[in-house]
Amino acid sequence: MKRPILATLVAGAGIACAGALLAPAASAYPVGPWNIEGPCVGAAPQECPMSPSQDGLTWGWKGDAWNYDKTGAFVCMSSSFWCGPLMGVVRALPPTPIGSWINP
């Protein structure tokens, strides 16, 4: 009697572990270590056409990107010639409201 119960418990635990390991990773907003929501505020990942960078500061779509500072304020579009160097500064500094200074 004890053997079938133990076998059932072990099988159930194995199925639960396999399900947890094989399930797709859920990516939820906000993104990155600074919890940036970017242009997808309030949207589920499948509802937003933008794809965030790993740190959550750059959100790309159709060859262009929206860039945010670590406080979540919009900084610049990547199509601006000065955006790349400015985002290097944003990434190097601690959370600073650079986007609020540029776009009041």
TrEMBL record:
Top-rank taxon: Bacteria
UniProt protein name: Secreted protein
Keywords: Signal
Signal sequence residues: 1-28
